[in-house]
Design goal:
The complex is a heterodimer of chains A (164) and B (107). Helix content of chain A is 77%, strand content 0%. Chain A has six helices and no strands. In chain A, helix 1 packs across helix 3. Chain B has 107 residues and is mostly helical. Chain B is flat, with a radius of gyration of 17 Å. In chain B, helix 1 packs parallel to helix 3. Classes of the chains: A mainly alpha (164), B mainly alpha (107). At the A-B interface, helix 3, helix 4 and helix 5 of A face helix 1, helix 2, helix 3 and helix 4 of B.
Chain lengths: 164, 107
């Protein structure tokens, strides 16, 4: 059951990563109409040329699902994996996970603001301070999820990567 | 700026600050003992096997930030924090954790 939940956790994280990256790039580095797409190749342009607003609810649900699944498998990590990592004296790997859990927790508290900042209808002009806050919040959540994804993968594969 | 925007901005900042305080002072609303599969109210030392406080820290921070935002709501109808507080404080809190946890990377 733990393995099943771990795989689900990873799959949900992959989808969340895609959704947040699309949204963050579309917000921070938007495609400009009629200006040759503002630089970047055709693939990069289509990656960031999405309707970013559409990702908000899905990203929130995916963040919560991934978070809850992570919480459910956390005790198994604490008992078996972390003990192994500490016995192997892989302190930086253990630290990577510690940082991951704290960043994700703070990210959780940002979700209500993230949701509200993306609620403004597309046809209404957005106050510059809200546009800036929207870009920052989305960008921070994107970086947190990327970091957590990489850290989680390293921890998950720690015995293969560092075991003797 | 609407009251809802002010409240969510305040919640985002408060949650981050209170979470840092809860982690650093180990103020968990409850403790989980994974070896025993048991929950305790409050911050309880490890018994058999390790004790997990992360769930309790989340609950402490969430509850405290929610209650503080709720209490501040009448005030938020007239005035409130600028919206950048809602991302700058969490970002600073995240960076603070890299500092607090630096010993893991310096051994």
């Amino acid at each position: 059951m733990i393995t099943f939940m771990l795989i689900l956790h990873g799959l949900a994280a992959v989808v969340l990563l895609g959704g947040l990256t699309h949204q963050a790039l579309a917000t921070i580095w938007p495609v400009r109409k009629g200006t040759g797409a503002g630089g970047g190749g055709a693939m990069a342009n289509s990656f960031r040329g999405v309707n970013a607003r559409l990702y908000t609810n899905a990203n929130i649900v995916l963040y919560l699902v991934t978070f809850v699944l992570g919480g459910l498998i956390y005790p198994a990590y604490r008992l078996a994996v972390r003990t192994w990592i500490e016995n192997a004296r892989l302190w930086s790997i253990s630290g990577m996970f510690e940082v991951k859990e704290q960043l994700l927790a703070i990210g959780l508290g940002m979700l209500p603001l993230y949701w509200l900042l993306w609620r403004t209808p597309a046809d209404q002009p957005l106050d510059p301070q809200f546009a800036s806050a929207r870009a920052w919040v989305t960008g921070i959540l994107c970086v947190v999820v990327w970091y957590s994804f990489v850290a989680g993968h390293i921890v998950n594969n720690v015995r293969g990567l560092f075991g003797q | 700026m609407t009251t809802q925007m002010r409240a969510f901005t305040l919640f985002s900042a408060l949650f981050a600050v209170v979470y840092v305080v809860c982690v650093e002072m180990n103020l968990a609303l409850f403790t989980y003992h994974p070896r025993l599969g048991q929950w305790d109210i409050g911050t309880v030392p490890a018994r058999t096997g390790p004790a997990m406080y992360w769930f309790g820290w989340l609950a402490s921070a969430g509850l405290a930030a929610f209650l503080a935002t709720l209490l501040a709501t009448p005030l938020l109808r007239r005035m409130g924090p600028p919206v950048w507080i809602g991302w700058a404080v969490p970002l600073a809190s995240m960076l603070a954790f890299f500092w607090f946890l630096r010993s893991f990377f310096l051994r």
